[in-house]
Amino acid sequence: MSSNKIILSESEMPNAWYNIIPDLPSPMTPYLKPDGSIIGPADLAPLFPMELIKQEVSPERWIEIPDEVKEIIRIWRPSPLHRAFNLEKELKTPARIYFKNEGVSPSGSHKTNTAVAQAYYNKKEGVTRIATETGAGQWGSALSYACKHFGLECTVYMVKVSYEQKPYRRILMETFGAKVHPSPTKLTKVGREILKNDPDCTGSLGIAISEAVEDAATHDDTKYSLGSVLNHVILHQTIMGLELKKQLQIAGEKPDMIIACVGGGSNFGGFTFPFVAEKLKGSNIRLIAVEPTSCPSLTKGQYRYDYGDTGKMAPIAKMYTLGHDFVPPGIHAGGLRYHGASPLVSMLKDKKVIEAISYPQNPCFEAAVLFARTEGFLPAPETSHAIKAAIDEAIKCAKTKEEKCIVIGFSGHGHFDLTAYERFLSGKLEDYEYPESKIEKALKNLPNIEPKM
Ligand SMILES: *Cc1c(COP(=O)(O)O)cnc(C)c1O
Question: Is 399 a member of any domain?
Answer without folding.
Answer: yes
